[in-house]
Amino acid sequence: MKVFKFGGASVKDASAVRNMTSIVGANLTEPLMVVVSAMGKTTNALENIIRSYTSGGDYQREIAELKQFHLRIAEELFEEISPVADTLDQLMDEVYMHLEKADDDDKQYDQIVSLGEIISSVLVHRYFLQQQVPCHWVDARNLIRTDSTFREGKVNWTETEANWQALVVQSSHTLMLTQGFIGSDEHGNTTTLGREGSDYTAAIIASCLNADSVTIWKDVPGVMNADPKRIPGAQVFDELPYKEAAEMTYYGASVIHPKTIKPLALKGIPLYVKSFVNPSLPGTKIHECKIDNLPPLIVFKENQCLISCKVTDYTFVSEEQLSTIFHALNELNIRINVMQNSAISFSFCIDFRENKLQTLIEHLKHDFEVYYNTQLTLITIKNYDAHSFESYRKHSGILLEQSSRSTLQVLVRNA
Ligand code: ASP
Ligand code: MG
Question: Ligand nearest 116 Cα, by number?
């Protein structure tokens, strides 16, 4: 069994769906599990709908637009449109229903945002069938079991593994199609695994089924040592060790979701990152291997915020005060991307989210004077060489700099 994952960009319009169908069709010599994400920017659109509903915006228009977006794709793909239009109507009704239901915010978010993957998988499944590609549609909500941490469901591996194995034992289908990103808790509420979590779903399924490999199909030729849009001449890696790939994602490389590597590495399942634009390119193989002289790897993590907590009396930052800060961060589930201390202040950089930031400041302001800067980018250069080390240290607008023997990080103001 192989697992293929197609993200939003690979199903963003009708021609993308045709292209992914031909990739799938060309790989049916052995059992295949296909995982799809929501089409294009659907997840963002659903997030915006919730936001508009809450803030008194025109959410009805946004829902109509989202329906139109899918309908246009369907019109290009299908000879017979009315069954698809009916399904879309039903799913949009579900969006309305969950909006109007008074619920916990995060729980409501998951019930609504997960529908993007449902719509996408229903459309793709129907298209497979129309194209005579026999395929079984699998509802991942019935199989990926998580706890009730909405927006960031923690997987119950024992139950999830039993569910997938039972499915495969009962099924005689060569091709199955399911959704990334979504699961459900023990009460039957839908949960999601965190934004961009479809890669992680592919890894979970592969691990549960002891798959031969996972392939993530992307709009880039493989894993590169820098974003080619920022750095011309960026190179594609032929292969990478799991550890290196995992660290890249930690620093913010968006090519693979950070949680993807571990389940695969634990079972020694190789991960291929390949181009859906040019499937004949070899792409990158991530597996257990040793590579000498990796080129410097440059990762830009945008939308960062630097917070400084200054002690308010004439003392120095104490361990007790640090523990207050860490406790607050832990409570709010905020991850530190880089940190630094001085005699009278402790500074740390986190992903910027306005409401989380305000809550954090509320927690800290009794003990510290809190300052912050937003609109920052954290640049990490892993495996730096003399040239990259010197040039990034001269970057304009540096607020914080830190280096070890292998890694340099600079936090800079956006130009
Ligand atoms: N559709 C979800 C998102 O955009 C999951 C994914 O694309 O991996 O976050
Ligand atoms: Mg996506």
Answer: 1
